């Protein structure tokens, strides 16, 4: 992917894709292999300053320092949960804060990162939506979250090989924000996550979750082959319009068409994860499960049922465990692979939709809803 390196805006090394690094090296009169060497220092060895790159001459390091900084966001608060989930409140330069969550499982460690400060979409059951939108995160701020988590987990320390579930083996763009509304920075960050000289994660292990910004999905398949999760939450337009209002602009039929194109016309991981939040008496009836199975039957994928995580004045309740199991049974009998997401980190408010952060709402939505 071609990245334009703006001298003003992008000075942070964590924001540069490999092609951009190549371009920068050319500009400062360095050979192309230098770009690979720098990336490896940063992402493989975890160098925290340009001066750590000891096999690069001092003169070259000075040149690099005149163009680049290596700057990570800072940890404001560190909250470990009883179940091993970890939430960090991250301070950004602008004075805003975002949250980042690490979820250890048996054989993997999943890092949930944010793509925006707040969110401009107004999904009715999500607490981030209540805070309104402040700004997009830069590429460096998105990549910086992964680097910061790896450091905090001690991945770069000595020769100790951490067990799989104490390392960042998977990244999900499921924190605050709608990733496809921050298209350029998010796709550049994904590029760095997947690149062999970057974090080198496989496309199966990096998942972008979207509420369904259809035109951006078509653009995504041109530049990336990352795994896709779709926040479906309802099998009919009437209900989805209410829960995920962007559906009024891009209704289900169009969304499903775009999903199909994404997995069939690109080299993407060929299975979609359909996310479906379980809301008591709203979308959890037996007929909803049948309708859902019918809707997605032609597209390879699996359903992930997410128990609703309540927050004050949400107006919703989570479906009972009985209902959730019944819903899953129906889907499975219809041939749809279905999992139920274990709710993690509840005691620290790190579960889905509870990522509060601290947002200065530029849309002033918080004020309007409070008054
Ligand atoms: N904007 C993106 C990514 C952020 S949300 C998207 O919509 O996909 C990540 C997932 O958590 C989405 O499926 C979202 O719908 C879900 N979610 C949001 N609030 C929730 C809540 N209170 N309980 C359970 N899941 C929630």
Automatic annotation (TrEMBL):
CDD domains: Radical_SAM
SUPFAM superfamilies for this protein: Radical SAM enzymes (SSF102114)
Top EC class of this enzyme: transferase
Keywords: 4Fe-4S, Cytoplasm, Disulfide bond, Iron, Iron-sulfur, Metal-binding, Methyltransferase, rRNA processing, S-adenosyl-L-methionine, Transferase, tRNA processing
Catalytic activity entry: adenosine(37) in tRNA + 2 reduced [2Fe-2S]-[ferredoxin] + 2 S-adenosyl-L-methionine = 2-methyladenosine(37) in tRNA + 5'-deoxyadenosine + L-methionine + 2 oxidized [2Fe-2S]-[ferredoxin] + S-adenosyl-L-homocysteine; adenosine(2503) in 23S rRNA + 2 reduced [2Fe-2S]-[ferredoxin] + 2 S-adenosyl-L-methionine = 2-methyladenosine(2503) in 23S rRNA + 5'-deoxyadenosine + L-methionine + 2 oxidized [2Fe-2S]-[ferredoxin] + S-adenosyl-L-homocysteine
Positions annotated to bind [4Fe-4S] cluster: 119, 123, 126
Cofactor, free-text remark: Binds 1 [4Fe-4S] cluster. The cluster is coordinated with 3 cysteines and an exchangeable S-adenosyl-L-methionine.
EC number: 2.1.1.192
Domain annotation Radical SAM core: ranges: 105-347
Subcellular location: Cytoplasm
Positions with a binding annotation for S-adenosyl-L-methionine: 177-178, 209, 231-233, 309
GO biological process per UniProt: rRNA base methylation; tRNA methylation
Swiss-Prot/TrEMBL cofactor(s): [4Fe-4S] cluster
Signal peptide feature range: none
Pfam families the record matches: Radical_SAM (PF04055), RlmN_N (PF21016)
GO cellular component: cytoplasm
GO molecular function: 4 iron, 4 sulfur cluster binding; metal ion binding; rRNA (adenine(2503)-C2-)-methyltransferase activity; rRNA binding; tRNA (adenine(37)-C2)-methyltransferase activity; tRNA binding
Active site, renumbered: 99, 352
PANTHER family, alphabetized: 23S RRNA METHYLTRANSFERASE (PTHR30544), RADICAL SAM CORE DOMAIN-CONTAINING PROTEIN (PTHR30544:SF5)
Record function comment: Specifically methylates position 2 of adenine 2503 in 23S rRNA and position 2 of adenine 37 in tRNAs. m2A2503 modification seems to play a crucial role in the proofreading step occurring at the peptidyl transferase center and thus would serve to optimize ribosomal fidelity.
NCBIfam families: rRNA_mod_RlmN
Note from the entry: Reaction proceeds by a ping-pong mechanism involving intermediate methylation of a conserved cysteine residue.
Family (UniProt): Belongs to the radical SAM superfamily. RlmN family.
Protein name: Dual-specificity RNA methyltransferase RlmN
Organism: Wohlfahrtiimonas chitiniclastica SH04
Gene name, Swiss-Prot/TrEMBL: rlmN
